[in-house]
Protein: N5-carboxyaminoimidazole ribonucleotide synthase
Amino acid sequence: MKIGVIGGGQLGRMLALAGTPLGMNFAFLDPAPDACAAPLGEHLRADYGDQDHLRQLADEVDLVTFEFESVPAETVAFLSQFVPVYPSADALRIARDRWFEKSMFKDLGVPTPTFADIQSQADLDAAVASIGLPAVLKTRTLGYDGKGQKVLRSATDVAGTFAELGSVPCLLEGFVPFTGEVSLIAVRARDGETRFYPLVHNTHEAGILRLSVASTAHPLQGLAEDYAGRVLQKLDYVGVLAFEFFEVDGGLKANEIAPRVHNSGHWTIEGAECSQFENHLRAVAGLPLGSTAKVGESAMLNFIGEVPAVAQVAAIDDCHLHHYGKAFKVGRKVGHATVRCADRATLQRQIAEVQALIQG
Amino acid sequence: MKIGVIGGGQLGRMLALAGTPLGMNFAFLDPAPDACAAPLGEHLRADYGDQDHLRQLADEVDLVTFEFESVPAETVAFLSQFVPVYPSADALRIARDRWFEKSMFKDLGVPTPTFADIQSQADLDAAVASIGLPAVLKTRTLGYDGKGQKVLRSATDVAGTFAELGSVPCLLEGFVPFTGEVSLIAVRARDGETRFYPLVHNTHEAGILRLSVASTAHPLQGLAEDYAGRVLQKLDYVGVLAFEFFEVDGGLKANEIAPRVHNSGHWTIEGAECSQFENHLRAVAGLPLGSTAKVGESAMLNFIGEVPAVAQVAAIDDCHLHHYGKAFKVGRKVGHATVRCADRATLQRQIAEVQALIQG
Structure:
């Protein structure tokens, strides 16, 4: 089976590493000449709107999936004429736009921060008056890793901010005094079978994920699965979907969903019986899903900007390096490490060792 | 770091899958147009004796290693002039020739079946008279998966057999009434550090490995490590070496070594903290070795001739498919499955499920 992937970054690369042993071949559509997934498959170097190359991709592959959600709706609609596309155009349309996404949460009774659609500075001023400060202004589409958003703490922050974010449609969100951030990686098969990985505790710095720790018997697991299940069913979703929550007052408020494999699920390569990458491929290919059970205790740490010397990473016990083969650049995700072991105390020690290397 | 691999079959493919996350790139020298490792790296399609392509490979890569041992000695010697080669030409020269191999066992005090060098039918007749029947005649080089060998049970089997095996140098081995076959996968770093995986119980049919089960606290583990350690040190070996033993009278007799990653170590991809493939690459690249500790109970089953339907393999709990992407052909190794779980009873059930699929 040949899988077409829109995007050829590290998520595509890890999809190919998971899918090759299943006998799958891959083609990546990505305009970047140095797309890091390219060595593991065919590379169609073209813009996402290039209909000739989209048509070529559709002709060559059995199905198409995505490694990022900021794909133009027209691209998905065009592809869908010729080849099965998972997740669906509808699911992508909603997940890539914070207004549609938050409105869906509200409709489904999934708690989420107060929000308002912002189409102008006047909208913003009115929404701030209603929601209050602090609040966060985010572009409705194309934001990631803290980009395309601004925290508003005082009236000074509000003035002219709509223009500062590019005068594009935005969403204002009331600030949530959360005690933690967790994510739920879910996978849903074509036949509707759904499985969930254990909740993951995430730590961000400057808007970028740094550390994900898989939990054991988290008290909010059931609630998170309930909320995510409503969304998966509503979207008739196929594939892996990541659900980010704020922990607030012993409950959960939905932050956002990502309709793809997710950075906070990278630990599953070593830390779960079947990884998020393999399960995404199983789902889109119509195969039975794999077990989402944990294999020991594990945590994932991102390498931002540069990967430490391979010998130093390899010297840490039970540490698994994932080098993305990308050029090093400040603020760029260029690799990660997963530590896996039998108990929490050892895990904490191993996390500290990797952190020392990162800060070294 | 770019690694050159002589051979581009499934072992090369799994080396690339293990090395890509370490940030390594691969080039495979293999004359086969459909070499199944080729999609994961550069493919230099040339004969193993093609000096132009060997020189090109040496110029492009940081080091060269092997995925099979039947490489002409001249190839290794030629490459070694230009680029580091691991394991060394000396280690390969001994491991690829049953006479050198068995003589080394004898010199090192490692028990092995009685053997004799056979250069003619007269040698064979004399050796049969001395060693007795049953016995096994094997070509000194190039044998694998039961090829290049013949079991001699009666005088009729002996007559004309030297010519039947091609009139090439052979080894006659006394038949060993073994109670089981085990293998030890060892890895030795450039600095001499050595690690061993748990002993593996192997089951062959018609000379081809069918089932490998990783053991727990095997009573012969220490003895096997002692024997293998002598060989590794003698050869100043770098990389993974597989050591096959017969279990005889509560002890071990050395059958053969393979100077490479080995089919009986494929379970380590899921079943050990660091796989034989990653550890081989760590060793040859001068990196610290990874842990050889088991992760749960696991077993590997080969798919010979054809891979069952992917959906059926994926439907078995905790079953991991490794499809080699090779054309199906009777008697050919085209894939394997590893089952991994927490306890032996579940493992036996899972093995039976995969076997039912194979026989189905």
In short: Chain B is about 30% helix and 30% strand.
